[in-house]
Amino acid sequence: MITELQSQKFRFWSFVSMVLLVFVHGYNLQQSYLQPWTMPGEPLTITTFTEYWLANGIFRFRIPMLFIISGYLFALKDNQPHKKRMNKRVRTLLYPYLLWSAFGLLFTFVLEIFPYGRQVVQQSNLMRLDEHRDLLHQYHWYETLARWIFFPVPYQFWFIKVLLIYNLGYPAIRWCVTHPVAKKIFFPVAILLWLATFGAVLIEGEGLLFFSLGVWMQKNSFDIDNAKRWWRPRYWFPVFILLSALKTVLAFYPPGQAAAPMLTIMHKLVVASGFICAWYACNPLVRWFMSKPWFIWASAFSFIIYAMHAPLVVFTVKAMQMLPVHWTGYRLLLFVVLPGCLVMLAILTGAALRKWMPAFYSFATGGRGIA
Predict the structure, then answer these.
(1) What is the separation of C-alpha 200 from the centre of its chain, rounded to a whole number of angstroms?
(2) Does 258 score more than 90 pLDDT?
(3) 272/187 Cα distance (integer angstroms)
(4) How does pLDDT run across 134-160, given as a tens digit for each residue?
(5) By the 8 A CB rule, do 38 and 251 touch?
(6) pTM across the whole model
(7) Please, what's the b/e burial string for 81-95 (b: 16 or more CB within 10 A of its CB; e: otherwise)?
(8) Residue 113 and residue 110: Cα distance in Å, rounded?
(9) Which of 91, 274, 327, 338 sits a CA distance of 20 to 30 A from 99?
């Protein structure tokens, strides 16, 4: 069983992580695809520093947070047969995945019908297959099918795809993290995959490590309420802030051939320290927000925020960048305002669907946020 505070923290951080995800995807520097070792390739300014520091530093703990919560909660229900749980996962994960992936394709297809929309899609490079094809209208049927099933236009759904795979393989993961010998092999391998930012069709490093950690914590009754000595935020907060700032500066002034591995290691330390600080140091913040009816109401729409924001955020950012605007601080203002507007749009859309089309809303969210 979980305590009331733990339940509040799971809900709070699930919602906050979704909101932060929109801001990360609202990043609008020239090099828009963020990896731990990404170097912006443009001058260091207040705008570029702030966006990179937040989007590729401060906000990056959110994915480990979501995977650990998912692993911990899934491990709580071992009293249920695994087949029964997977049947439920088809409804809560697979059906929404396929629905929103199809919607992303339809939205892009309609956008490409209009000349300006077609230009936006081309400039975003989101649909690019090769140097000659960068529109959905240029896909063959089997490429569209593959995009629907394996590579969703709402690219954030990689998390749902991976989570479904780890849920399916949960018995093996549970054995690996609880068997006395297996865990001594499994965790070093998982950590190496995480450090290498490994990604493949069925396995990727970040999700495997943190989902497994969530399972291990639940099975070993790990104290997730009180930080042990070396997990106390006062040790990790300076690491989190200073290292994320240093990493940001080095990304603009890379130190030669060692830049990529150095940035990667620093990135991983920022992610780990950020997670520790967020989970253990923010209990008063969690209690305050979770005592507010408006926040509890808004947090019910976590999934709809997650599902709706992309590819809309990419196309909107690109459309705004194509406007002949040259204000000082324009990109930073766009980075702050646009994601906030999209979060509000998603919440209002979710509220309307829940009220007027409850059956569809339940299907589209996998039954989340109904109450």
Answers:
(1) 17
(2) no
(3) 15
(4) 999 999 999 999 999 999 999 999 999
(5) yes
(6) 0.95
(7) eeeebeeebeebbeb
(8) 5
(9) 338
> CA 261 to CA 267: how far, in whole Å?
10
DSSP string, 245-313: HHHHHHHHS--GGGHHHHHHHHHHHHHHHHHHHHHHH-HHHHHHHTT-HHHHHHHTTHHHHHHHSTTHH
Q: Which residues of 219-244 are buried (b: 16+ CB within 10 A; e: fewer)?
A: eeeeebeebeeeeebeebeebbbebb
How much helix, strand and coil, in percent to the nearest 5, is found in the chain? 75, 0, 25
For 133, phi and psi rounded to 5 degrees? -130, 115
With contact defined as beta carbons under 8 Å apart, do 93 and 287 qualify? no
Q: Provide DSSP, 77-105.
A: TTTS-HHHHHHHHIIIIIHHHHHHHHHHH
> In this structure, are residues 37 and 267 in contact, taking their beta carbons and an 8 Å threshold?
yes
Please, what's the largest Cα pairwise distance for the chain?
62
Structure tokens at 135: 């529109």
- Give how far the C-alpha of residue 111 lies from the chain's centroid of Cα atoms, to the nearest Å: 25
Stated as kind and residue range, the H or E segment containing 151 is none
